[in-house]
Amino acid sequence: MSTVPRKGIKATKPLVPEPATIIDVIVETPSIRSFRLVFDDPGIMKEFSFAPGQIGLMGIPGVGESTFAISSPPSRRDYIQFSVMKTGFVTSAIHELKAGDAVALRAPLGCGFPVDNWKGKNILIAGGGIGMAPLRSLLLYILDHRHQFGDISVFYGARTPADLCFVGDRAHWEEREDIAFIATIDSGQPGWDGRTGVLPRVMEAGRPPAENTVAVICGPPVMIGYALAALARLGFAEGQIFTTLERKMKCGIGLCGRCNVGSKYVCTDGPVFSLADLGNEI
Ligand SMILES: Cc1cc2nc3c(=O)[nH]c(=O)nc-3n(C[C@H](O)[C@H](O)[C@H](O)COP(=O)(O)OP(=O)(O)OC[C@H]3O[C@@H](n4cnc5c(N)ncnc54)[C@H](O)[C@@H]3O)c2cc1C
Ligand code: FES
Questions:
Q1: CA–CA separation, 244 vs 129, rounded Å?
Q2: Which one is the CATH code of 18-109: 3.40.50.10700, 3.90.950.10, 2.40.30.10, 1.10.3980.10?
Q3: Options 3.40.50.80, 3.20.20.80, 1.20.1070.10, 3.40.50.150; which CATH number does 115-281 get?
Q4: How confident is the model at residue 174 (pLDDT cuts 50, 70, 90)?
Q5: Would the pLDDT of 262 be above 60?
Q6: What three-state secondary structure class fits 67?
Q7: Dihedral in degrees, nearest 10, Cα atoms 129, 134, 135, 138
Q8: What is the CB neighbour count within 10 angstroms for residue 108?
């Protein structure tokens, strides 16, 4: 049986982009910006709800749309945030957007993290680069429901200090005594007095206990590969490890077949999967 409850595609009209407006833009790093937006229809905004890990397709009319994880937490009712790395055509156009600009949004889509199944467990979060976007939503959800979870450890890695997102959040997470938060950069840099070393190595050196723990990892494929090997050495079983997968998407609702991983569709079966669900299809 799947370890992620399959309840994806919550948007009432998933193929119809709803008009929305950017209300704020946060420059996170030289290549990543966070966009806060609201649906133009107050009724849709009021009803909007999602689980951390769910995604949206944000588009600019006449340009195109792309898939992004929601990086704000479900408790945030006044805006929806996406954190976008500039990689190509659509994301470059999105990076030009300012407060007041119009976008179109299909959300929420896909399956979120099965947080209800994780109550009472320790949570280990490991995010690399823009992979921290869905994990920010997850971490903020967990902090909103802190008493429901055990120990929380968070490892966040990037190439350089300038590539670490969510500056304000990080300061807060570092100060909190009820979570262990470690940011690391790949190699030493002038002015950086934090941890250095690639994320899987720093995570393994922390020796997080596997017992009663769920590990959630998201980041570039090479990081995920090394993190999975480290988690296996630490004694984590496949059913204890969750990730979110990225594949090129078009319809977002299981119709076009563009986003398959083996026999599964990332848009409807994921993007959240446990390693036990994926088997050798990852
Ligand atoms: C489930 C899911 C969640 C995602 N969440 C985020 C997020 O939170 N923030 C974020 O910045 N990006 C996220 N992405 C990736 C994002 O969708 C792509 O970067 C974006 O679609 C690229 O569009 P483009 O037109 O700018 O790039 P293009 O001009 O189409 O391509 C530029 C380069 O990016 C590569 N690329 C395009 N799409 C993808 C993709 N889906 N995955 C990997 N490489 C791709 C292309 O191969 C090419 O090398 C997510 C993707 C998926 C499927
Ligand atoms: S994007 Fe069309 S099937 Fe997944």
A1: 14
A2: 2.40.30.10
A3: 3.40.50.80
A4: very high
A5: yes
A6: strand
A7: 170
A8: 23
In 3-state terms, what secondary structure has residue 112?
A: coil
Q: Please state the atom number of ligand 1 nearest to the C-alpha of residue 93.
A: 26
Q: Is the pTM here over 0.90, yes or no?
A: yes
Task: Report the C-alpha gap between 76 and 261 in whole angstroms.
Answer: 32
Query: Exposed (0-12), middle (13-18) or buried (19+): which is 87, by Cβ within 10 Å?
Result: exposed
Q: How far is the CA of 199 from the centre of ligand 1 (A)?
A: 22
pLDDT at 38: 97
Return the best residue to mutate from 6, 251, 263, 269 for the ligand 2 pocket (most ligand atoms within 8 A of CB).
251
Taking the centre of ligand 2 as the mean of its atom positions, its distance from the CA of residue 249, in whole angstroms, is 5
Query: Any idea where the domains of the chain sit in the sequence?
Result: 18-109, 115-281
Tokens, residue 54 = 């769910």
Residues 123-158 have pLDDT tens digits of 999 999 999 999 999 999 999 999 999 999 999 999
Q: What is the DSSP annotation of 176-229? A: -SSSEEEEEESS--TT--SEES-HHHHHHHT----TTEEEEEES-HHHHHHHHH
